[in-house]
Structures are given as C-alpha cells and as structure tokens.
User: What shape does this take?
Amino acid sequence: MPTPSLAALPIRRLTLRDLTACADLSEDRGWPREEHKWGFLLTAGKGYGIDDPDGGLVAACVVTEYGSWERAELGAIGMVLVAERHARRGVGRRLMRHVVATMGTTPLTLHATPYGRPLYEELGFKVTGRAEMVVGNFIPGGPEYGVATRTATAEDLPSILRLDEEVFGVDRTPLVTRLPAFADQLRVAEDGGRIIGYTAAWPNMDTHVVGPLIARDTETAKALIASLAARTDRPLRTDIDVRHEELLAWAKARGLASVAFNAVMTYGITDLPGDWTRRFAPLTVAAG
Assistant: This one.
C-alpha cells in the first residue's frame, strides 16, 4: 500500500504511553530526551501528535491549560517538534494550526526559539517579552540575603497556590500540586510567618532546573536560588525574564553563563496576566 501523505495523517491526543516516542522525537532533533519533563507535561497538560506509518512520531507538542475547572483562561504551548526526516514540509504549521483552532478563544503563550519564531509570527503570535537561559555550577558566597528560606511542607500548599495565582494571574493548581512529586526540592521564603516566595529544583538530564521562581523581590529570589544550590551538586539551569537585570547579573557573577534567549510570545492577548515583577522564571519554558 502507498504511504499516506503527511497532510492525510491524523492528529491525535498523546498519553503517557507515548512517552518513549516523544523522547525519541526530542533525540531525533538533537534535543536531550528529557523523559522526566515529558512525563510531567503529558500528565499536567494535553499532548498532540501525528503518528508516522513507519513507526514513532512525525510531530508532537503539548498544551498546558490554566484557569478554572470550567474554563481555561490561558494555554501554554511547548515541546513543538517535527522529526528531521519530515522537517520543512508544513507539518509543524499544520499541528500548530490544529492546536490554535482547538483552543478556540483561549489566549495562548509560548517561548519561541529564533528558529521557531517565524512560524509563530505567521500564525499571529506577537513577541511580548524575552527570557535568558543561564546554566552553570553555582558559586556560593557574597553577602547574606536576610531572607529566611526552608523546605516546603504539605501545610504550605494552600499558601503557595494563593501566591502563585496572584503572581501568575491565573489558577495553576494542576501544575503546582504536581511539584512535590516532580521536583527534588521545593522551598519557600518567609517573612513574619508569611510565605513571600517559592521555588523548585527539578532534575533534567545532568542539571537541576530552577523553576518556577516567584518572589517578593530580587533579594528573595537570590535567597531561594542560593538555598537550592546549597543542596545539590548538579549545575543549575533556569530561564529568567530579561527585565530582571539585577538577578541575571547576580546569577552570572555566581557562575551561571548565558546560553540562549527565547522570545516570549502571546496570541489573543497583548501581554501575560499577573505581576511580572514577582515572576522571575517559569517552571519550564514548555509550560509558560
């Protein structure tokens, strides 16, 4: 039988059963396999993919929805990948059009690499910001931060959820409640018994990714990062909003080096909701 054309191959929902195929697709494009992250995204979000008749996936992406149980108020698109053997044949465009249509009137956001940005602009996404990825072995030292941090407990979860919704602008309960199982560390910063920030460090290949990072101010963000670094031997990696210039300069002085920039893009809204001054880094760029 003749092989069906790419345009005729159906787009379907992905599940955890597709985890290995998604990791294979990442590897095919020269990305790390990131199975831990794929597993998280496929359970916290909705995966979409196109099966290759010869095995594996032609393309995949994940949408993480935020908002009330009745209605999504924001969707974050990530992990948009097309197999190298099918690249530059319109597959990514078709998959993205499907996702945008499926989300209807729900505003969307994504972090775009320079390679992917032209496609997203063609689809109507607008650049609203920029994030800088920094990676490296954290060098301790410098002045004390004057902010108390500690390991988060189950009793902290309601306060973390309230703070996260206030800063992010929409409810992210399905994502945040998965953090204790997903991350190796979950820490909070306190002032007078009140939680003023929180962060996590989750394993990704040979690094610990710092995110989300939500904090009252830059000093609190520094204290949270330093507290994570003191409890791991792995290099740290995080994606910091470039408007947080002081935190970026501090991170680079502490041994983290700039490795990439991503454009933060939106569709259906002119800017992201919430308070960017307290939103320092996402859990992962794939989830907004």
In short: The chain has a mean pLDDT of 96.
